[in-house]
Amino acid sequence: MPKFPNYQTIDGLTIGASYLPDAVRSALAYKPQEDDLFVVTFPKSGTTWAQCIVYLILNKGKPYENLHELMAKFPYIELFGADAMEKLPRPEAIKTHLDFKRTPYSPSAKYIHVVRNPKDTCVSFYHHTLNIIPYEFDGTFDDFFEIFINGQNDYGDYFEHTLSWYEHRNDPNVLFLTYEELKSDTRNSILKMAKFLGDEYEKMLIENPDIMENVLKYSSIEEMRKIVRMDQLTQHPPLELLPSGLRHMMKYMQEKNITSLSNFEFVRKGVVGDWKNHFNKEQVKKLDDKTREKLAGTDLLKYWQKLGILE
Questions:
Q1: Which of 3, 66, 91, 210 is the residue whose CA sits 20 to 30 A from 310?
Q2: pLDDT tens digits for 197-228?
């Protein structure tokens, strides 16, 4: 049996034990406002990258100064709780890792979904789980691989999550992108995102090359690594000023005597192909077989085969 991280189950959703159940339940019950924008991913599939791009587009290329500013203007609804969404200034956006059936949905809201190939997602999720101390996970990659391929990690099965959004890829209020597309053609992917946000944003980037260059620069891995740092979470405002869910997590960390997160880079490599440094031959075959089975008939299979990710 593999070693497991510290999870809990809230209304059928597997999630980290440090989350506040009431905040998660409020997220699941949230009723979107007409101008809500969601960035949706399975964990470790380019969430922060997509967040930063959207933030920079909405703020005309002006960068955020620290993690707290990004979180305040781009709140993580399952962590913060729905109350934080009601105070959100506009235009801003909401982060979630929920699958389609659980995501607060409205046909008048907009959803940007980014999917990453399962091999790199598994590797990135492993490092995330190993290094985010509240998970209390000291297992090996082999342990986490078994958890991942069986859909026992937080937020559940990768393939079910991916298919739930893939089925809505042509909906007018959904923009479906791949992480690999973002990497190979970042500029055009940014323009797609801008047009989806509104024609005025696409026009802004086309007519103002300096703004486009700032979006590219400040959403780069190098810049995100400087600013999106986990150690900032322990340098938070007074607890009473934090949203209920984040306040609960900070108290949880205090009770566990977690005083520093400085040894972990939330933005790690941001590359395509890191799975080659972790998977053995048996694991490659096992995950490839499951990918073909679960994603049969989708364009994703052909795309990842073309890139050499799927053997």
A1: 3
A2: 999 999 999 999 999 999 999 998 888 877 76
174-178 and 110-115: which strand pairing?
parallel
Q: Say yes or no to pLDDT of 275 above 90.
A: no
pLDDT tens per residue, range 21-57: 999 999 999 999 988 999 999 999 999 899 999 999 9
pLDDT in tens, 114-130: 999 999 999 999 998 98
Residues forming beta bridges with residue 38, ordered by sequence position: 94, 111
**How much is the pTM?**
0.91
**What gap in Å lies between CA 309 and CA 311, rounded to an integer?**
6
What pLDDT is stored for residue 90 in this prediction?
76
Q: Which of 97, 113, 127, 161 is catalytic?
A: 97
CA–CA gap between residue 307 and residue 91 (Å, rounded): 36
**Would you call 168 a catalytic residue per the annotation?**
no
Question: What separation in angstroms does the CA of 201 have from each of 59, 75, 109, 220?
Answer: 10, 22, 17, 20
What is the DSSP track for the chain?
Answer: ------EEEETTEEEETTS-HHHHHHHHT----TT-EEEEESTTSSHHHHHHHHHHHHTTTPPP-SHHHHHHHS-BHHHH-THHHHT--SS--EEE---TTTS---TTSEEEEEE--HHHHHHHHHHHHHHSGGG-----HHHHHHHHHTT-STT--HHHHHHHHHTTTTSTTEEEEEHHHHHHTHHHHHHHHHHHH-HHHHHHHHH-HHHHHHHHHHTSHHHHHHH--GGGGGSPSPGGGS-HHHHHHHHHHHHTT----TT--SS----S-GGGGT--HHHHHHHHHHHHHHTTTSHHHHHHHHTTS--
Closest CA to 287 of 272, 303, 304, 270: 304
